[in-house]
C-alpha cells in the first residue's frame, strides 16, 4: 500500500478534496446575506436595463462605487458572469466559491509536493496533511460561504498557481512556464489589492531556492514587480493613495506602529468571537497546531528548512500587510476571509517542514513523527471548530431567507410605511448590513416594497431621523423605488414635508418573525421622535 501511494502520490490528495467537500456541501442550501444582496440586486437590474456588460467592463477603468478605495474589476466581472450562468439561484453562485476552495486545497498539496521534490524529500503524507489543514481551517470559512468574499479565494488560486508554474522549471520548456507568474498576477490584482504582496513573497522563495534560478524564473520575478508597480501607480491615480483601501477613521492617519499594536491586541477578541460556538475545541486546536511547529522546526538541520522558513515569512508578510491596512480585526469575529491567503502559505510551509528527507544520511527523527501526530490532532479539532462556525453561518442565512419571506405578508397587512429594524450581524457572520435596500427589492422579492418597508440597522437610527425630518418617507411614496441606485437615492433624498413611518417593527431572531413595536406619535417633533425611537429599539429583542 505504501509503495502504491509513493508511485501515485497524487491519488492521496483526493482524500482532502473529498473531506473538505463533505464539510462545505450543505452550503448549497444557503441564502444571500450582507453584501450579497446588494451585489445580486445590482447585476439583476443592470441585466434588465441591458447594460450589464458595458457597466461591468467600465469598472476596469474606474473604481467600485463605495466608501473605501476599492478597485476590483475581476471580482465584479465574476459576479456578472455568475448571474448570466446561474441567474438568481444561490446554489449556482455558491458552486463557484466551492470549486475555488477545493482547487486551492488541492493546490496547497501540489505545492508541498513540488517544493519537497526540489529538496529531495518525500511529501507523500505531508502534502495531503497540509491540504487538510488548509481546507478545514476554521478561520477561512467566510471566504467560502459568503459570495461577496470570494476575492480572497481567487487571489490565492491565481498567485499560488503562478508559484506552482514558477517552481516547476526543470527543463527548458517547463522553464518558460515561469512566465505564467506575472500573467496570473495581473488577474489576481483585478480581484483584490492584496495580490500586490506576491512579488515580495517571490523574492523570499527565490533567495531560499536550492539551485541557481533559471533566466525565466529571474525575469518572471522582475516582471511581477513591474506588474505590481504599475497596479499601485494606477491605484494612486484613481484614489490618490497607492495602498490605502479602507477609509481612515475620523482623526486622520494612524502611525504604522500604532496600527500594528492595535492589530495585535485585536486578535484575541476576534478569535474568541469567531470560535464562540466551540471555545474548548478551539483552544485544543491552537495548542495542537503550535505543538506541531516546535518539534517540526527543531528536527532540522534538514535540506528544506530554508524554503519552509521563506514560506512562513511570506505568510506572515501577507498577514502583516492586511492588518496594517485594516488596523485590526473585528471584535465580533467577522473578517476570517482576510486570513485565507496567509493560511494557505502557512500550511504549505508546514507541509514542507514535516516532509521526510529521502537521503539515507539524514535520519527521520521522532520529533518529526510527533509533529505529524500533533498536526493530525489539529486537523481533527480544527474541523470541529469549522463545523461550529459553518452551522452558525447557515443559521444566519436561514434567518435572512425568513426575513425576505416575511416582508410581503407584512406589507400586505400593514398599510403605510414601516421602519423595519434588522440585525447588522449575528455573531461573527454578517447578516443584513449593506443588504437593507435589496431585502425589499427585486430580485429577492417578486415586486418592490421599499415604499412600504424600510429596513434599518440599529446604527442607522439617527440617520433615519434626519432623513424622515427632511421628507424621505413622503418621497418614498412618490418615487416608489424599484432599485437602489445613485439616481433613485438622490430622488428620495430631495426635501419634502416631514412624515414619520406609520409602523415600527423589528426582526426578532429569537422568535424568527417580524414583531410590531410601539411607534412614536405621528405628530412628534424631530427631537422627540428620535428620543422615543431609541427607547423602542432597546425593546426589539425583549
What this model shows, in words?
The protein is 61% helix and 5% strand. The strands form three sheets. The chain has a four-stranded mixed β-sheet, covered by helices on one side. A two-stranded antiparallel sheet has the order 1-2. The chain is elongated, with a radius of gyration of 26 Å. The protein starts with a helix and ends with a helix. It is built from 23 helices and eight strands. It has two domains: 2-30 and 63-393, no CATH class; 414-538, no CATH class.
Strand order of the largest sheet: 6-3-7-8
Average of pLDDT: 89
**Which percent bin holds the helix content?**
55-70%
Count of distinct structural domains: 2
Computed structural class: mainly alpha
| Number of β-strand runs | 8
Largest sheet: 4 strands, mixed
Tell me the overall shape. Answer: elongated
Terminal CA distance: 61 Å
Beta content comes to under 5%
Q: Any idea what the radius of gyration is?
A: 26 Å
Low-confidence stretches: none
Features:
542 residues, 4-stranded mixed sheet, mainly alpha, 2 domains, two-stranded antiparallel sheet
